[in-house]
């Protein structure tokens, strides 16, 4: 690009060239120059909340007579354009950037300041709206960036994740009722166990997800604490006494969520407790989903050489070399998402350890991994439900054959003939590869009482 494509801007380090058509300014440009790491940007949901805080701060500062109404209203107007996504392309910074998110905060301040200046009436354009003095008034990166993490996560959890975890629970519950008549062999250690209803297996899956849903509801409450007004280190320096209350009220109004001030501002500023706690629950959800999806892949294995007790909906061809092969693609995708989330939980825990004194400077890393975890899990769950769980059917004949040939049926007669005799009968049936009943008949032990004890319906 030619020199005519740039403008000269100045910050506390001196002059720097910035693209002429960019709404961001000098500090954003320095961060662009310094951090070409991953080509990953913060998502619109995060940028939207950044702008929401800027608008709420401008409103509070106007009401507290610290900011001229013409400037405050222009900042609110520019912030709302950012919230709508109009200027997402101006938020250009890599997620791996300077600690605490200072660069990301300045990206928002500069874009909003320059756009707000354009929105001023000609009669009001007596000077440029300043990114620090006006847009960042009463704020620090240290309190606002931290708050953006909490607000963005709380919105995603309430609007997406919680409803979708509930959707998964409800579908598993419905499927458990549908499959309750199907009798099958249980398995422990991947070996024969006493009979179970397929619906009982699925009811276990459903309740597991329900318990995680309840935990997620409880732990999300910690995200409602936002330290707006704590400024640099929690001492509320350079703010009006009513500032925090007014900003939090405006954010609660815009999100319809019950945000509040922290119980202790200094604890809030020093730590990233809420993301750590929430991610522990998301990690647990991932662990359970891996268990459930692994079970379903095993139960659907085949179609000729595996268990094939259930059939999954076919969603796409499974091989470029084996014609007609169909793989459990949705279950595999879900497992991958869960692996990523478990890794991200470790990242957030490690970043949490890196807090020092009055601030945790790893907040950009925490923000990126936390929000991406919530997003990919929120997107995976409805795919799992609609493209897999809803369409599962039982292969009753296979289930019946496995159950009737299970060596564990001998458990039913152990209280009649004794543990040792039952074990001998089971071993003989196994060595000869014949049913338990055949051995009992040959030994003239198949009495009505024992035949009743062998009935799988009496074991479930």
Automatic annotation (TrEMBL):
GO terms for cellular component: cytosol. It comes from the Bacteria. Keywords: Lyase. GO terms for biological process: aspartate metabolic process; tricarboxylic acid cycle. Pfam families: FumaraseC_C (PF10415), Lyase_1 (PF00206). It is an enzyme of class 4 (lyase). Its EC number is 4.3.1.1. The keyword Lipid metabolism does not apply. Residues 14-343 form the Fumarate lyase N-terminal domain. Gene3D superfamilies: Fumarase/aspartase (C-terminal domain) (1.10.40.30), Fumarase/aspartase (Central domain) (1.20.200.10), Fumarase/aspartase (N-terminal domain) (1.10.275.10). InterPro entries: Aspartate_Ammonia-Lyase, Fumarase/histidase_N, Fumarase_C_C, Fumarate_lyase_CS, Fumarate_lyase_fam, Fumarate_lyase_N, L-Aspartase-like. Signal peptide: none annotated. Residues 409-460 form the Fumarase C C-terminal domain. GO terms for molecular function: aspartate ammonia-lyase activity. This is Aspartate ammonia-lyase. It comes from Oceanobacillus bengalensis.
